[in-house]
Amino acid sequence: MGPAAHAAPRDPLTASSPARLAAGARWGGETPEALVDAARAGDRSAFEELVRATYADTYALAFRMTGDEEDASDVLQEAYLRAYRGLRRFRGDAAFSTWLYRITANCASTHVTRRGRTRTSVLSPDAVVPDDRPEHDPEARASVNSDRARVAAAVADLPPRLRAVVVLRDVYDLPHEAIAAELGISETAAKVRLHRARKRLRERLFPLRGESADGSDP
Amino acid sequence: MRCEEVAELLPDVLEGGAGAPARAVRHVETCLRCQAELAQYRRLLRALRQLRFQLPEPPAGLLSSLLGGVEASAERHALRAALLRRRVAYAAALAVAGAAGAAGAAVLAGRSRDRIRLAG
Ligand SMILES: [Zn+2]
Fold first, then answer.
1. pTM of the shown model
2. Cα–Cα nearest to A63, from A51, A48, A74
3. Nearest Cβ partner for A172 among B40, B52, B62
4. What is the pLDDT of residue A53?
5. Neighbour count for residue A41 (Cβ, 10 Å)
6. DSSP-assigned beta bridge partners for residue A128
């Protein structure tokens, strides 16, 4: 953890999140922008700092898309190599974190397609960093955590094609155009998948009266 | 419009903007059932956004393997660059030698022309 971990007030992001980078925080004594500039100019240690600062967050995206620890690690390995080689092509008009998300999404999508199946059976939605924000009382925290685990499990249970779109749009806030481009599908197809994914999740997680929680009629 | 038809459009209504069909929006404004469903969609979106802050623990050793990968790639790149430089230098040397040879030939050709003129 970098010095930002001790910064107050603490937000729900970890200190290693690129969302902090994007917000112009200082990391490892350098601003994220300065690190990106130095890395683009060929400074390898600056790039390594960027890897340290972002990998937990990028790993979360890869894990949510592939549903598997080993696959997510492979995806990350490839994504950071691609980012390293492609750094010169990174234009500063998008946030570095968004650029990384797109590369990771593309690698994960290719990986899942190549694999042709996902090892959803070994998913462990409990393997998460506990939310230890002191401002939350333990009871509320327990309920928030169990809600989150439920949501994570429902997302993990979606078919990979639907899961990828809802993770990229509703969890990581990528625009439709970027999602379509990185998944290699049309924007219309991306929207249709998103629509289906949301419907399934809504029926399972937030059913209306008269709807059974698993989405099937009683 | 019937609630069942509107239900199919609710994820679009949720997005707002131009994508939301006006007829569906008008129906939702007057229908409690569809409003309840839309509220559930909003809860879902809030819950999904929260997932962003719930980071699965990366496997031990992932960071060092990522850094190792970057280092290996950098070294391969440096090696390729060095080979390329050597090849460029070699090609340049050849070109210089070639140019020198051509210049020498031109001088010889010029001299022989002079000799012919002198002889004529
Ligand atoms: Zn209705």
1. 0.73
2. A74
3. B52
4. 93
5. 10
6. B56
